[in-house]
Every structure is written in C-alpha cells, then in structure tokens.
Protein: CENP-V/GFA domain-containing protein
Organism: Cladophialophora psammophila CBS 110553
Amino acid sequence: MSVPSHLACHCGLVYEPSSLLANSSMPNESIMCHCNVCRHTTGSLGAWYVTLNGAPSEKSLTCTTAYKSSEKYTRYFCKKCGCNVFVRSERDGRWLACAGILERSEESKGEGSHVKAKGNVTNITCHWYLDDAVDGGIAPFLTKLGGRNVPCYRTEPSIEDNGPLKEGDLLQLQETSLTQPSSSPGRGRMLEVSCYCGGCQLLIAPPPYNSTSEGWFVPKADHGKYYARLCCCRSCRLTLGFTLQPWTYIPPSQFFTVDNEPIVFGPLTKETRQIDKLSHYQSSEFVVRSFCSVCGATIFYQSFERPYIIDLSVGVLRSKMGNTMAGEWLDWDREIVSKRDEAVDEALVEAWLRK
Ligand SMILES: [Zn+2]
Ligand SMILES: [Zn+2]
Ligand SMILES: [Zn+2]
Ligand SMILES: [Zn+2]
C-alpha cells in the first residue's frame, strides 16, 4: 500500500508532513459532500476531506485565509494560490484536510513527470447532501467505485429516515441530469455565476455558436450549450484542493458583469478587476488562475496560449433550475478527462467515464 508523503498546495506555502493525518495509509476513507456550501466555497462539484490528528502548523495557517462559512465550520485556503486546504469544525475543534492536497512522493516530482498513479488517494464511503445539488450533482455517476456500491443520501445518514436513495432513482438522475435540452423552459436567459460569499459574481450569455462553428470547445450535438470536461492534472488538483476539476469552456465575449458590462480578459490580469474580490495566481508561464479572495472558490483558468477560451469552474454556476451539473447549459464530455495520466483517484475517473 502506498503512503502519502505530505500535504501541500500548489505554491507550497501550505506544507504539512503526512504525520498530521489521522490515518497515514492510503486510501484514506472519505465522504463526498454535495452541499451548496462545499460547492460554492470551492468551485468543485463535490468536496471530500480526510481527518487530521490535530491542527496544522502556524507556519501553514499564517499563509491561509480563514472563511467562516457557518457557525459549524471555518474553511481555509492558501492566500497565494487559492487552494482549498483545511476545514475546522467549530463544534469539536476537529481539523480536516481537502483530499486533493495529499501527495505521494512520486507525484510531488511535479508536472511532466507523468508518473502513473499508484492506486487511489481516497476511498469514498458515501455521498451526502444530494438534495442540495438538485440533479444529484456528480454523485449518481460515482456510485460504483472499484466494485463497491457507494450509497447516496439526500442529507446525512444519521438524520435520514428513509435510508439511501434507491438504485432506480439514481439511474433516473444519471439519465436526465446531463440530457436537459438547451431549449428547456427553466433555463433562463443568462447563466448566473457566484461564489459562496458573493464577492465573485458574473453572468454568462448563451453560446455564440451556430451550425458552422468549429473548435474543440464547440459541442457537437447541441450548439445551445457550452462544452464541459473534468481535468485531473496536478496543477488543477493543487489549486482546487480536490482531485477532479470541473471546467466549462467559454469565449471571453460571453462574460458580463452583474451590471451587464462586458468583462475584459487579457494577459494583464488587473483587467478582470471588474469582478470585486477576484485574486490571481500564475501557476505556470502561460497560465493564470483566479479565485475568490474572501471565500476561496476557484473561478477561472486563463491560458495565454489560447486566449479565445476561458475555463470557468463549474461548482460556482448557479443554474436557474438549481442543477449542479447545469445540464441545460453544459454538454459534458464523458469520453475523456484531461490529463488522465496525472489522476490520483483512478476509481472516480473510471466511474465517471462512459463505458
Ligand atoms: Zn498555495
Ligand atoms: Zn458540504
Ligand atoms: Zn488541469
Ligand atoms: Zn467568495
């Protein structure tokens, strides 16, 4: 069994030895939470954590911003790279780490090393708060992991009277959530985007595509939708804090402020100051990532090599229908994920991809 060597964010300011983990063997058991708070404070489709045996060091914590999302939890993200790193329970003082920051020594060699992951980092034991996700989020696609059945709950098992969702209900969610037509009456004119605290808000106009539109980012079937895909690369993982980064790909011309002003993107990231609390982090020579400086949600990925498309993190979309996967706006690719060779939770990737 492989063991984690440490916990770290992308920029390295947050760094803890694996001895901080309550269970230092792998995979670490974890529950995937689909609640609104977890999604909107991170930009992820789901959030899953591992238990720590104490508080992270002062050195790491001084490099984070704390955000008290409710009376129950305070969330911490790296000030510099925006990675979601820790959660503290205010009730019992327990500390958790976001599962994506666990690194094994072979992965920490970094990008381009293309080391095939050795097994899974986490072992998801159940999904909860599917009711918050409305369409069930990504949970209905991740119910069979490595031969195990993973139960899904509307809220939490301890407060659930009826037990887990039935297989038929999950199949139904799986069939309907991604196939909502773009002409769906509940879709609305613009797609709203907001992090949990509301410091990063914007609007997205419908796709400008027609039957002659070309490009990898143009959906093949429904031109009224935007293309969406999961990325498993190490940079996404260590700036998000979770192992699956959901991106949708949108031409810059389609972004507007809440006052309907076009949003200006460009290599000078100061131009995106039109969005109140946006912070920027250059994760490589040609890539700038942006996150909310108040609540930590991952918002954008901009590559100067392809300025005609901006990646937007799906976990901060606010579909009018409440759908987490926003099937009425997004055309999800389940044939491929980006950078599968860098995936660390292979069982999740395997479950998500269409057989
Ligand atoms: Zn960092
Ligand atoms: Zn949650
Ligand atoms: Zn990536
Ligand atoms: Zn925010």
The domain at 6-177 is CATH 2.170.150.70 (Metal Binding Protein, Guanine Nucleotide Exchange Factor; Chain A). The chain has a mean pLDDT of 93.
